[in-house]
Specification:
heterodimer; A: about 270 residues; six-stranded mixed beta sheet; 9 helices; about 35% helix; B: mainly alpha; 10 helices; ABC transporter permease (chain B)
């Protein structure tokens, strides 16, 4: 792993894992993304911040095509995700390609979205078994290791509804880890949690960041974004208003809107 | 006293009574088969109603809207007859001479070769299909509603992990749908059980028909025991049978519900 310094967050030579080019997305008359480009390189943690409605969740969901951008391209490991049609009619161009690419993107949702009818262990094993078609014994060993890693190995046979929110979100992280993802996508992973449960989830995410995993993170938590990120992107009304290293964005804020936003966030 | 008991045991195990007891199998078969078909038609109807293609959606909506409104007795009479005659007509076009078909006026079918004789078993199958079609329309609505009750986020998560549409449908969507559908489906099942008392309409010698025959007054010693109208006693036995089936069904549905609801229903939490 290449070591990173705060002042030189973009590692020269590290390959682009996620690359977004000029993304536009509207919901009806509401234009949510107005042309956004950014790149997350191997080993980088990129945080998306901004007020609600700034388009940060939509942007994240465009990476694995849960939302299909009206315009613009998404590349994963340099491979262009095929789309056909234009504008709001745009749709997946190649079902096999998108399923293969999605099976390498570990998404963690705000509301966990664990499959309620499966135990925690079954949740973690499901995608490796039926999407990646890996061996059951190997997957189970992996899954248990991941559950241990996030600290809920003892809950493997419980159902999601029997766990606290923090445990559920850690189970969801284990589920994402078990597919050996190229990149982890976090969509406000702690927003649905009580403050005392947030800590345990943040600790796990920090652990993954320190391992050098590539991650794109949408978050409300400015302190966390500052401590975990290599790069911070501030979205405002569907455009990138400011971006840079955490020290630049939080320590030497240029944009008036970002100053205002950070001010409001610190009083929340 | 002992003679009395011996007499009644003998009477209740005579040929006619044994046939009556045996006829319960028709009722049970029709209920189980009809119920299974209703679920199959219900799943098909709900899938059609959820389809992205407008013609499929129309067929699904038309089926659940129209067939639910047709009285089951009427459909019971209509469907097997229509099906039989349609088959006979198709066979007739193949095996009867053109002259016979052209000359066809009163007799049906046009020639003897095209005649399709239906025995009890064929009628049972047709009855089950009729039950399945009528109650499948109800099941369509129940399942359609249950499909929409499955949390959308879980389906989205399944897609996000690379599952195909079919995998999402079978591994997540339908698997969780049962929890929301079972209360409604248990109602449909009860209606099917009730409708099995209509089997005699299709000339099946079922439990109702035999209860009628056995209970009918008899004044001829040569025919058997002389007694007046005993039908209410036999009907009472049918009451008990249907109540027993209801009780068993509720227990079975309770067990299925606990199994399907594991992790989803709050009762299931330890």
């Amino acid at each position: 792993m290449v070591s990173m310094t705060q002042t030189e967050p973009v590692v020269a030579g590290a390959s682009a894992v996620v690359e977004l080019r000029n993304l536009h997305k509207s919901f009806g008359a509401l234009e949510v993304l107005k042309g956004i480009s950014f790149t997350a390189r191997e080993g980088q943690v990129v945080s998306l911040i901004g007020s609600s409605g700034s388009g940060k969740s939509t942007l994240l969901r465009c990476i694995n095509m849960l939302e299909i951008p009206d315009q613009g391209d998404v590349l994963i490991d340099g491979e262009l995700i095929a789309l056909r049609g234009t504008g709001p009619q745009r749709q997946i161009g190649d079902e096999h390609q998108i399923r293969r690419i999605r099976s390498e993107l570990g998404m963690v949702f705000q509301s966990f979205n664990l499959w309620a009818h499966m135990t925690v262990l079954e949740n973690v094993m499901e995608a490796p078994l039926i999407v990646q078609k890996r061996q059951r014994t190997e997957v189970e060993a992996d899954a248990r290791a991941m559950l241990d890693k996030v600290g809920i190995g003892a809950k493997a046979d419980a159902y999601p509804a029997q766990l606290s929110g923090g445990q559920q979100q850690r189970a969801a992280i284990a589920r994402a880890l078990c597919i050996n993802p190229r990149v982890m996508l976090f969509d406000e992973p702690t927003s649905a949690l009580d403050p005392e449960l947030e800590v345990e989830v943040l600790r796990v995410i920090k652990l993954l960041a320190d391992e050098g995993r590539t991650m794109v993170l949408v978050t409300h938590d400015m302190d966390f974004a500052r401590s975990v990120s290599d790069r911070v992107i501030f979205l405002h009304q569907g455009l990138i208003e400011e971006e840079g290293s955490p020290d630049e964005v939080f320590g030497a804020t240029r944009s008036a809107r970002l100053k205002q936003f950070l001010n409001a966030a610190s009083h929340a | 006293m002992l003679d009395d008991i011996a007499f009644w045991v003998g009477y209740l195990t005579n040929g006619k009574h044994l046939t009556w007891y045996a006829s319960f199998q028709f009722t049970i078969f029709a209920a189980l088969m009809g119920g299974a078909l209703a679920v199959v038609f219900g799943l098909t109807g709900a899938t059609l109603k959820n389809s992205r293609f407008l013609p499929f959606r129309l067929v699904g909506s038309f089926y659940s809207a129209i067939v639910r409104g047709v009285p089951d007795v009427l459909f019971f009479l209509f469907f097997p007859l229509a099906f039989e005659q349609a088959v006979e007509w198709i066979v007739a076009t193949q095996v009867c001479s053109p002259e016979a078909i052209a000359a066809q006026t009163a007799p049906w079918p046009p020639c003897r070769e095209a005649n399709w004789f239906l025995g009890t078993f064929e009628y049972l199958i047709l009855a089950s299909v009729s039950l399945g079609l009528v109650y499948g329309a109800f099941a369509t609505n129940v399942i359609h509603g249950a499909m929409r009750s499955v949390p959308a986020g879980q389906l989205e998560a399944a897609r996000a992990y690379g599952m195909s549409a079919r995998q999402v449908l079978w591994h997540i969507h339908i698997r969780q749908m049962w929890v929301y559908a079972l209360p409604g489906l248990s109602n449909v099942w009860m209606l099917i059980i009730k409708a099995t008392s209509l089997l005699s309409l299709l000339q099946i010698a079922d439990i109702v028909l035999w209860a009628d025959r056995l209970g009918a007054p008899n004044f001829l010693p040569a025919v058997g025991l002389v007694h007046d109208d005993w039908r209410w006693r036999y009907y009472l036995v049918l009451f008990v049978f249907y109540i027993l089936v209801t009780w068993l069904s509720e227990r079975a549905f309770g067990a299925i519900m606990r199994r399907a609801g594991r992790g989803i229903l709050s009762e299931a939490h330890g």
